[in-house]
């Protein structure tokens, strides 16, 4: 799957693409490993968490270099025991030298647009560190105040390492128990 548009302004080429998770990995890898080096010296709350790979990737290329990435993971989970279709957003990253230009906003909005167009998704969900809360709240994301369960190596466990945020697509669920029925993203 591939779709997008190219805009050329002042000889600068900007392209936004949506690719399948595996095929987009080659383009996304240099950016993601520069933002989260595998042997990173900085310890992060998510360092010891096992994450699901994305099903789709939104990438923004600037002059043919991928400068921004958002992963999309589609998941059938449960809310208070009832089946829900969750549109997971993760691995949100912009190359350091081009931050603050709206690229992550553009890529997240493209991801939400894709999930909305697919029509099956009940709501978007992401997990972030507290210092990114203001960024996501500005984009319309809201705290999920209930309990989240996810799979980790020890089995099904409460997922508390990162703060959960939700985005209304068909439904807004902010309380209760969400089981991701798999790895987080
Ligand atoms: C968080 C991140 C993806 C933002 O990317 P970006 O392309 O710079 O974001 P945007 O340009 O779309 O930012 C939109 C707005 O949010 C603001 N913003 C960015 N990060 C913010 C933060 N942590 N807290 C509050 N506001 C923030 C920007 O200043 C901008 O404000 P403005 O609209 O008033 O100008 C980027 O800083 C990054 O890659 N960080 C490292 C990886 C990471 O931690 N990712 C988050 C995983 S949850």
Short description:
This protein has 185 residues and is α+β, with helices and mostly antiparallel strands. It has helices spanning 25-35, 103-118, 133-138; strands spanning 4-9, 12-20, 56-62, 65-79, 82-94, 123-128, 142-143, 147-152, 155-158, 163-168, 177-179.
CATH homologous superfamily grouping: Gcn5-related N-acetyltransferase (GNAT)
Question: What CATH architecture do you see?
Answer: 3-Layer(aba) Sandwich
- Alpha carbon gyration radius: 16 Å
Q: Low-confidence parts, pLDDT < 50 over ≥5 residues? A: none
Name of the CATH class:
Alpha Beta
The helix/strand order is EEHEEEHEHEEEEE
Count of individual helical segments: 3
Q: How large is the share of residues in beta strands?
A: 35-45%
Description:
- It is a single chain.
- With about 180 residues, the chain is of the alpha+beta class.
- Strand 4 (about 65-80) and strand 5 (about 80-95) form a beta hairpin.
- The protein has one domain: Aminopeptidase (3-Layer(aba) Sandwich), CATH 3.40.630.30.
- Strands 1, 2, 3, 4, 5, 6, 7, 8, 9, 10 and 11 form an eleven-stranded mixed β-sheet that branches.
- It is built from three helices and eleven strands; from the N terminus they run E-E-H-E-E-E-H-E-H-E-E-E-E-E.
- Coenzyme A binds next to strand 5, helix 2 and helix 3.
């Amino acid at each position: 799957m591939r779709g997008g548009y190219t805009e050329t302004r002042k000889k600068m080429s900007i392209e936004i693409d949506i690719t399948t998770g595996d095929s987009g990995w080659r383009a996304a890898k240099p950016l993601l490993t520069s933002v989260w080096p595998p042997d990173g010296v900085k310890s992060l709350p998510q360092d010891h968490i096992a994450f699901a790979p994305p099903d789709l990737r939104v990438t923004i290329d600037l002059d043919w270099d991928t400068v921004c990435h958002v992963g999309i993971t589609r998941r059938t989970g449960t809310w208070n025991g009832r089946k829900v279709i969750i549109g997971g957003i993760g691995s949100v990253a912009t190359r350091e030298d081009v931050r603050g230009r709206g690229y992550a906003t553009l890529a997240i909005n493209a991801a939400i647009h894709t999930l909305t167009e697919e029509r099956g998704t009940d709501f978007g969900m992401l997990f972030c560190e507290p210092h990114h809360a203001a960024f996501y709240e500005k984009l319309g994301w809201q705290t999920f105040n209930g309990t989240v369960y996810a799979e980790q190596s020890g089995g099904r466990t409460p997922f508390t390492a990162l703060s959960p945020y939700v985005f209304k697509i068909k439904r807004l669920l902010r309380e209760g128990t969400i089981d991701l029925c798999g790895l987080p993203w």
